[in-house]
Amino acid sequence: MSKDNEAPLxxxxxxxTSRSTGMTYFLNTYTKKSQWERPEAPADPGEIRCSHIxxxxxxxxxxSSWREENITRSKEEALDLLKSYRKQIVANDVPFVxxxxxxxxxxxxxxxxxxxxxxxxxMQQPFxxxxxKLKLGQLxxxxxxxxxxxxxxxTV
Length: 156
Ligand SMILES: Cn1nc(-c2ccccc2)cc1C(=O)N[C@H](Cc1nc2ccccc2[nH]1)C(=O)O
Known about the structure:
Elements: E1 13-17, E2 24-28, E3 34-35, E4 47-55, H1 75-90, H2 96-103, E5 114-119, H3 125-131, E6 143-145, E7 148-154
Antiparallel strand pairs: 1-2, 2-3, 4-5, 4-7, 6-7
The protein binds ligand 4DH.
Domain PpiC: 45-156
Domain WW: 7-41
Organism: Manduca sexta (Tobacco hawkmoth)
């Protein structure tokens, strides 16, 4: 029995009609790939763009940054600091970009935390896993990688 084509599609998909056959097909609006089967999950974006704020600590893979040559804060202090930044951003007290440029321990701080477009397999696994779960414009909860603690904003 054909699925109800009136029901809303999962995020990132569009319904199209084949000009040659008149049959309905489905287009992934991110990758522009199409399929005959009605999708039941949001379209895989393939690549996304994110900005992030990183707070490093003494046990970080590289406990040094443009801000601080030798980072000595504890993991607990780093997480508390990141949570305070997230609170300011969520309350709209300070823009994400301003916090990133001033406080992020990643060299992407100079670009407001922007990491550019990336696909799966490019970033540390915990970061990738959280980033690809985010909806457009969503801000993550704190995420731990070998580099330290991050909050991630999906921008594309
Ligand atoms: C992954 N990446 N992209 C940039 C970057 C991107 C655009 C412009 C300038 C720098 C910096 C980095 C990077 O690994 N930076 C590290 C810190 C870091 N570790 C990460 C792990 C996951 C995602 C981003 C991360 N950034 C550093 O500066 O010590």
